[in-house]
Amino acid sequence: SEKDFTDVVNSIREQDARFAKGAYYFVRQALDHTLKRFKLDQSANNHHVTGKELLEGIREFALDQYGPMSKTLLEAWNIKHCRDFGDIVFHLVDAGVLGKTDNDSPEDFAEGYNFQDAFEGHFFRRPDKTARTIHKINKKAADFRLEDEAQNEQN
What we know:
This protein is mainly α and about 160 residues long. It is about 70% helix and about 0% strand.
């Protein structure tokens, strides 16, 4: 139940207060999101989610829920690297909330993605590329205006 989960999170944070409470709730929700995705994709009832699969589910869930604020929110919870997700997951494993196989370890999360690319990449493009794109759009608009003016003068 939610109260039990709150107790577990409070107990974990008494031992290791690096991550905010919200981080644990977020990872739990992201895992639920990931499991639902696998059930839809593979019709698998008891699919074990690997660290890599969970990282992708976390990224999807964060972007879906928080959009361009994802990275900012994760940093507010003191989550700055994929390995931090692994630490949170294994705190929950040690507390008996999540299960694992003998092959699972926190290191499974270490080789994940760059947070800037994963959570801001498609929201905040490079300024020089954006400036070039805007320039091209403005040039096209100017060309169309000139064509319209020329056509209006002929009529």
